[in-house]
Amino acid sequence: MQDNVSKLGKGIGWIQMAAALTLVFFATCAYSASKTVLVLGDSLSAEYGIARGAGWVTLLEQRLKAEQIDASIVNASISGETTSGGKARLSELLGQHRPSIVVIELGGNDGLRGLPLASAEANLRAMIQESQKAKAKVLLVGMQIPPNYGREYADRFSGLYQKLSKEAKVPLVPFLLEGVANRPQLFQADRIHPLAEAQPIMLDNIWPHLKSLLQR
What is the reported pTM? Predict the structure, then answer.
């Protein structure tokens, strides 16, 4: 009887170990499975005014390789893009690339042009929902603007991203230009577009949030 109980205990132990190894296996596969990351952004992601290959999106590709993460990047960013333009292009991009993750870096041009915030909010919400409907995870990238149209407008603008992040339960990069915006020497002559030296900082602002999505 004791021998049988002992054998049974050992059998259960092996079953538990096998189950644990299976979980580790599937977790590893989920991390290592090839993923496509679609970056939908404006000039801040489109290497405006800097050498090709110097932008944060290209640096992201290099970091993925360095960390041996099997993911490809599709940079669909266009200089001057607004939330309405991104919304208009998204459906075709989702169908063409079938991304696992969509990084939405839009809204800055809406804010700089003083466009209606309700429209920007609606466009961002629609892009988040359409991406999720396509089974893609979403990373929302927040932006801040100077108070050219008044402090209230600027505060409401930056608040859009926090509101949508909570509403849609998607991760948020609070401010793409954190650590850059307060350093004029990191900007081009227009005082709007960052230099190549600023791109690693921008990537560091995005990386922890994106890496977390890649690991899920």
Answer: 0.85
